[in-house]
Amino acid sequence: MRVTFTVNGRPQEADDVWEGESLLYVLRERMGLPGSKNACEQGECGSCTVRLDGVPVCSCLVAAGQVQGRRVDTVEGLAGEDGELSAIQQAFVDAGAVQCGFCTPGLLVAADELLEHNPSPSDGDIREALSGNLCRCTGYEKILDAVRLAAARTGQGV
Amino acid sequence: MTATQGRVRPRAIGTPLDRLDGRAKVTGSARYAYEQPVGEPVYLHAVQATVARGRITGIDTEAAAAVPGVLAVLTHRNAPRLADTRDAELAVLQSDAVAFRGQFVGGVVATTSEAARYAASLVRTTYDTQPHDSVLRPDRDDLYAPESVNGGFATDTEQGDVEAALASAAVTVDQTYTTAMNHNNPMEPHTTVAVWNDGELTLYESTQGVHMVRSQVAPLFGLQPDEVHVVSPFVGGGFGSKGTPHAPVVLAAMAARLVPGRAVRFALTRPQMFFVAGYRTPTVQHIRLGADRGGRLTAISVDAVSQTSRIKEFAEQTAVAARMMYAAPHRRTTHRLARLDVPVPSWMRAPGECPGMFAAEVAMDELAEACGLDPVELRIRNEPATDPETGRPFSSRNLVACLREGARRIGWERREQAPRSRREAGHLVGLGVAASVYPVFWMPGSSATVRAGAGGRYTVSIGAADLGTGTWTALAQIAADALEVPVERVELRIGDTAFPPASVAGGSSGITAWGSAVVHAARRLRETYGNAPPDGAEATGETGDNPATERFAMYAFGAQFAEVRVDEETGEVRVPRLVGVFAAGCVINPKTARSQLVGGMTMGLSMALHEESHVDGRLGQVANHDLAEYHIAANADVGDIDVSWIDEDDPHVNPMGSKGIGEIGIVGTAAAVANAAHNATGVRVRDLPITLDKLLGDPGAGNGPAVRRR
Ligand code: FES
Ligand code: FES
């Protein structure tokens, strides 16, 4: 089948999509967007998190056919056209929230969505929003710091 | 000139430089092994054994081969013969024998990953099944003593007369401790992209050491080392499981041989990682301590049992920390193995020290209780003047300073000595302590090249690895200081066998070994060309020898403290606070170092409360083989983790004065949590993980219920 959808603001088309194919596969293998990671392929880790019509989803669990006519946003779409990092990306670097980086794209997408709806989240809000994203390296503390930092900077209009 | 001659003057070293690979990682542009551009790749999916022991009697590949897009189906019948099959873990598809459930018995190569996976599911294998034995029980009569244990340490040691000392000791502890099987589970699954061109093999590999992969894979295929190229710029975590090559890289290289010129992509699924990528063996440790009434140890005895596989030996060095940690005139340690029909155990973050220090540090807590002593004070009383095993002085040993600082930070004075004496809002609250230790290993054999470029810029090349540990950044800082230039003028190149050889990122030895080579190369460049070398001037340096390793015992130390809260009604255990204070020499980059230590303690917390690979003895496999059932600490499981370090100057370890920090963070965490849980509830859990059922207490065990019964 053919699937037509928008990725990071650009119209995209994928041909010969197999019925069982996941959105994650389409992004990584067909669209040349390997930023979203495959770490379990069964909805347990959040490494593949993207936004589907604005809502964070595990793209490994979304069938490609489901995205027909819809909007998908991935980690590759977070930075500005000029390459300037978004507030949450910069905060992850500054706070030391990145180690191996394999969980990072999914966390960034989830955190970005959180801050869009809740510009000054409590620690509980952050933990809840990121509860589906496993990280084996960092211990999460610096990830929380990064989200707080991004919230504070955005709040100050930085 | 010896490698450590002359310390590097720290300028960039010691500053919290942001991770230089951060930008690539937050934009999603960092290319991990699977994502390396390789033209039109094809895909491999593995077929795994469905019995735990036996022989393959038939393997029907017809249906698989007929799936559109399938290019080849590999089995032991048609697989390329390997030139060297001595390492049975790597001798993939070389016979019809099955040595453990989940072992590779085939593979399918296809033009899409779906086709490969689907076709693999159609391969039908029949077996002549033999009875298997896959559960570690310490009471077996066929335990054996390996020739040596991991790291090359002696299997058994004995000093003095332990039995006599125990018999005459005023106070003794005699208990058995067990730790669970754990799986490393880096977030990036083990991945190989393999391609053969003109008889040479290129591997894009998710690994902790490109040269390690080359040196082990080349002989399997009858190649010279320089005919194997390994590329690995970004690695999504390893924690030891990507340290030595396992079967997947061999299967991928074999599959690629069937489609020369085309790259074969192969990533394990998460469930497959529980079968063919190494794991931490379960351990059973019998510990006996003897002491005088003042808590001074007279005897330490540790008998450690762990498992290995039938096809290849791995002997966890569980008891080695007990050889050097505390003073005691009489001591003995032993290691015994059970050879089982199981996958090959391997390295997982601090093999040896991690499970060993759980048992030893809980035993110390029990001794403190038996002596009526504060557990911090007990450890201070047993501080040795020199390494008890070798008699050598320590190059630096600041355990006591770590204990004192940690006690201050956690508010140790609030701890009630008597267990079960603090209740807050329906919770039993307790504090616990444990010590941490990890050796400073000197791994020779690395070299680095420094090349001068235009405008005072330098390129530093070494085949080192960054698994998320911070190598990209820390090594650039070291190079900058050795060259006495700002970090911005250094370009680092790592993760490729095209660069000078580097030892594996293991044993927390990376920065010591690679940093020493980089410093040596930088100094050679300066010696030869001065401060303004011509464009293209180049020098190579080596890790070399460090004679000080013959004169000193070299270790990093630490102290970990935990606050545990146990719900009186449900037994649920929470750890709102962990404090870790470390003495690890010069800290190259405080930001990446803190991440390493916090990450290690978090994995220790996860080991303490959650991680357990449950073996189903009937099937001979880990039953909970995915991330839904094998729980690793998630965001809400982790409380406040307070990491700090004390100033420590060690002139002997290497030119930077640094000690490794990748592993020490996980050493002792689980013991601190278990000791705090005992302080909270009065229940002594000697068996990891500390799940609520254990705190509910077994009335028959005499330890009493922790929580209220209705
Ligand atoms: S890869 Fe999708 S949740 Fe793990
Ligand atoms: S940074 Fe490695 S898994 Fe999160």
TrEMBL record, chain A:
Its EC number is 1.17.1.4. It is an enzyme of class 1 (oxidoreductase). Transmembrane segments: none annotated. This is Xanthine dehydrogenase, iron-sulfur subunit. Residues 1-78 form the 2Fe-2S ferredoxin-type domain. The keyword Transmembrane does not apply. It comes from the Bacteria. GO terms for molecular function: 2 iron, 2 sulfur cluster binding; metal ion binding; xanthine dehydrogenase activity. Keywords: 2Fe-2S, Iron, Iron-sulfur, Metal-binding, Oxidoreductase. PROSITE patterns: 2FE2S_FER_1 (PS00197), 2FE2S_FER_2 (PS51085). SUPFAM superfamilies: 2Fe-2S ferredoxin-like, CO dehydrogenase ISP C-domain like. InterPro entries: 2Fe-2S-bd, 2Fe-2S-bd_dom_sf, 2Fe-2S_ferredoxin-like_sf, 2Fe-2S_ferredoxin-type, 2Fe2S_fd_BS, Beta-grasp_dom_sf, Diverse_Oxidoreductases. CDD domains: fer2. The keyword Metal-binding applies.
Automatic annotation (TrEMBL), chain B:
Pfam families: Ald_Xan_dh_C, MoCoBD_1, MoCoBD_2. Residues 27-131 form the Aldehyde oxidase/xanthine dehydrogenase a/b hammerhead domain. Its EC number is 1.2.99.6. Gene3D superfamilies: Aldehyde oxidase/xanthine dehydrogenase, a/b hammerhead, Aldehyde oxidase/xanthine dehydrogenase, molybdopterin binding domain. The keyword Iron does not apply. Keywords: Molybdenum, Oxidoreductase. GO terms for molecular function: carboxylate reductase activity; iron ion binding. It is an enzyme of class 1 (oxidoreductase). Coiled coil: none annotated. PANTHER family: ALDEHYDE OXIDASE 1-RELATED, XANTHINE DEHYDROGENASE. This is Aldehyde dehydrogenase: molybdenum cofactor-binding subunit. It comes from Actinacidiphila bryophytorum. The lineage of its organism: Bacteria, Bacillati, Actinomycetota, Actinomycetes, Kitasatosporales. The gene is paoC.
